[in-house]
Amino acid sequence: MSLVPMFQSWLVGCILVSLFMWRVGLALLVLAFTVWFLVGVLGYAGSNIQHQGAGFWLFILSEVMVFGTLFFYVRGFEASQIGLSPLSSFHGIPLVCCFLLLGSSITATAFHHNLGLGGSNFYLVCTLLLGACFVGAQLYEFHLCEFSWSDGAFYSVCFCIVGLHFSHVVLGLLGFLVFFKLQGGVSSYLQLFYASVVVWYWHFVDYVWLLVYTLVYLC
């Protein structure tokens, strides 16, 4: 018996609820992804590696479309309205976040290449620390930000972009943390597969941040 139809119906329900009560819908969506991760990644779908790989790339494709749509809107607002101020200065916290994520991308690559050779956990911890610093810096930026959702459609879209990317960073950190549980509990082939997926996802998050920095803060 497959759990895919049940999971899909749950997601559809979350979307319908979020149309009217977005806080409840968000909570249900987080719960749905948590159940998927615990059941699918840690236990249920361990034998369907090819299906998981295809699903991962479909997920990345959907994320590209979501971010691309938001980037299109923010560029439209910037072109039609002169004198808009960014959420934060481009040479302040956002620039620090660039170095943090680029550094974490390097350590994530080192972790991937050293997997099974020893010393990979050191690079994994470095990646987690750099990612946690990014999360802390973003929270501090939100605290200092002079604008809010109610200041116009432009700032609403900017907060959507930055907040969506922030949630992806948190999800990536959770993926790295779960890898500690996978060590010794699954075969080396599965470890390599899951490590590859998490690292590819992390690189995707890094590349998206460069676009966020350019379009939301720099331009």
Structural commentary:
It comes from Azygia robusta. GO terms for molecular function: cytochrome-c oxidase activity. This protein is mostly helical and 219 residues long. It has helices at residues 4-18, 22-44, 49-80, 93-113, 120-144, 153-182, 188-218. The protein folds into two domains: 1-45; 56-218, Cytochrome c oxidase, subunit III, four-helix bundle (Four Helix Bundle (Hemerythrin (Met), subunit A)), CATH 1.20.120.80. It contains seven helices and no strands.
List keywords for this structure.
219 residues; mainly alpha; Four Helix Bundle (Hemerythrin (Met), subunit A); 2 domains; Cyt_c_oxidase-like_su3; cytochrome-c oxidase activity; Cyt_c_oxidase_su3-like_sf; transmembrane helix
Radius of gyration: 19 Å
Distance between the termini: 51 Å
Overall pLDDT? 76
Helix content: over 70%
Q: Approximately how much beta-strand content do the residues carry?
A: under 5%
* pLDDT < 50 runs, ≥5 residues: none
Which CATH class of the largest domain is shown? Mainly Alpha
What CATH architecture of the largest domain would you give?
A: Up-down Bundle
In CATH, the topology of the largest domain is named Four Helix Bundle (Hemerythrin (Met), subunit A)
Shape: globular
Main sheet makeup:
none
Q: How many β-strand stretches?
A: 0
Order of helices and strands: HHHHHHH
CATH superfamily of the largest domain: Cytochrome c oxidase, subunit III, four-helix bundle
Number of DSSP helices? 7
The total domain count is 2
- Overall structural class, as computed from helix and strand content, comes to mainly alpha
GO molecular function, one term: cytochrome-c oxidase activity
Protein name: Cytochrome c oxidase subunit 3
Domain Heme-copper oxidase subunit III family profile: 1-219
Pfam families: COX3
